[in-house]
Give the backbone structure.
Amino acid sequence: MTQNYDINQPIYQVGDSPLSFAQMLNYFIDPAYKKGNLSRISDMHVKTGRPVSFRIDDDLTPMPGAGPVTDEIIRYMLGILLSEKHQAIAFSEDEQEDVDTAFEWLEQGVNFRLNIFRDRDGLAFVMRVLASNIPPIHEVGLPSEKIWQDITELKRGLVLVTGVTGSGKSTTISSLINHVNLHRKTRIITLEDPVEFLFESESSMVSQRQIGQDVPTFAGGLRSALRENPDVIFVGEIRDTETASLALSAAETGHLVFSTLHTRDAKGALSRIVDMFPAEQTKSLCLQLSFSLSFVLSQKLVPRMDGNGRILAMEVLKNIPALGNLIRSGNWQQVYSTMETQSKEGMMTMEQHLLHLYQHGIISKESAITYTNDASLIERLG
């Protein structure tokens, strides 16, 4: 007999009262944890044998008074979150497969991204809240208007947004794409795993496709998209050689392509793409990348000094002729110094932006040092 799971059923003891799963999810929308339209809580972590914890301003914090989660409790939570198909995978002792999916909290109109897995103690899962509305690009926190204006006016080229998980890459790209959607008459196709922000077709026509549901892989979806007369393509992540090759070719042949990489800085994004391919292709890849690439935005979310949430710190690489020459020659060592001296072109290093935020009293000296990619920033902080 199929068990009925009720999101409002009290299941988890916190202090003197049992809480329902809905009450736990309420933390994500509690005004006390809001910064503007965004929640300061990004994730809920649930693991067998440990208290439910939330990531608040980048710190993982257990719920006060919460006890350890039992196997029974975590299975009830997952029964609420998962389809029967995904429950069969998550609950099976024989399966060695993670579950990646999404959950829509209908009562509050809030969407989450989910990953369910097993560790040595049993079941565990992480759920990340997705912003219900795509923020306007001028509210995202890019270092200057010129950057996003230049990007959203592009007709072709590759725009990469890089950073660690949870650094806001999806928010930045979605805001850029939605600005195009609102103000240009284009055909936009997205390939996502899973779909995070929902676009409404405005001046543009938008089709969103989910990996594993609408298309099998990023590479397969990208091959399909190129036959669908797109102007703008969003590839959720460049994970393999085939996807990288197709993305570069699409950008080179007249499409505006957005994608993400997990690298800590803009320079690392260039070498990461080239290193995906066999060494004998390095010269041709550097040449293709020098013509295809338009921008690399590398970002971090840094705690505000007033304790009220986090702010975007961003490194901006723009493919001007001087930089294109460095890319063609694979001379990554000089990329940083070129970015540092070309502020008039809209470029900025992470250190320059962190220094700016510190000098304007937005972040602390300690945060600037913690989030820098270059220890020389310490000397400039004084």
